[in-house]
Amino acid sequence: MPVDIEATVIANERLSSDYSVLSLRAPEVGRRTQPGQFIMVKPVGVTDPLLRRPFSVFEVLRDATGNIAGISLLNKRAGRSTRKLYELEPGDVVSCLGPLGVPFKPVQAPVEAWMVAGGVGLAPFATLAETLSALGTPATLFYGARTAGELFYLEFFERRGITLALTTEDGGRPSGRPCVKGLVTVPLEAALQSAGPAGAMVYACGPEPMLEAVAGLAARYHQPSQVSVERVMGCGLGGCYSCVVPVKHGDEHANLVRSCISGPVFDGAELVWPSTSSGQGTP
Predict the structure, then answer these.
(1) What does the DSSP assignment read for 24-87?
(2) Environment class of residue 169 by beta-carbon count within 10 Å: exposed (0-12), middle (13-18) or buried (19+)?
(3) Do 36 and 228 touch, CB atoms closer than 8 A?
(4) CA proximity to 41, closest of 30, 25, 52, 57
(5) Along the chain (283 residues), what's the average pLDDT of each consecutive run of 10 residues?
(6) Please, what are the domains in the chain?
(7) pTM
């Protein structure tokens, strides 16, 4: 069950002029969080904007004794809500509701786990990487960004035994690591073409066109996928119907479901993507 608390800011690490990692003292949320779940947050006392905004839980934080102490969020300053979160300092207080939503389903060896992240779509994969590492599941992070300066937390994943497959749109390379120029789907498709007999579960989070392309590639090469959709959510509890997505099972007609309670994680083969619904087909 989710909890509704006021969480104190522990730290707000600015990764760049636009990105930050906001750490919150929220052990009640951290203890309940599963990979892929989200929370609804807003700084206490802020009335513009009025509603809380959804964020994937990035890390589950532990203290020096190993006890769960809180959670962190990966934030990109892009609008009023995210700008206010970027500006928070230790000691500030954030209204926090969660964890919410359907989590990822981790796989175990010999099946491999392939995580595909675009930009802030990296957020749900920190907790998933820790779970996969604990299970001993071979895992790769396919991580794409516009520039090398927007590829974050690489050492975090490397320390957990996650193989990195990095791409940048401008061809820039993070220090000391190989990187391919282009979209993140390029190394993903190469991996799918040579997938072993046990196969792989493809996890994805990022912009919707990327999710559609990833789900289409996974289906083309007969691999399952789990995708975490990004939707504007007014409440996070299913009451406002602001986050509906079309879903179908097999040959059934598509039904609109609320991504805050039926997702945000869905079977990629069951989502009805915009190009499919318009008759264009998945690229």
Answers:
(1) EE-HHHHHH--TT-EEEEEETT--SS-S-EEEE--EEEE-TTS-EEEEEEEEE--SHHHHHHHT
(2) middle
(3) yes
(4) 52
(5) 96 96 98 98 87 95 97 94 96 97 97 96 97 98 96 97 96 90 97 95 96 97 96 88 90 89 96 65 35
(6) 3-100 (2.40.30.10), 112-229+264-277 (3.40.50.80)
(7) 0.94
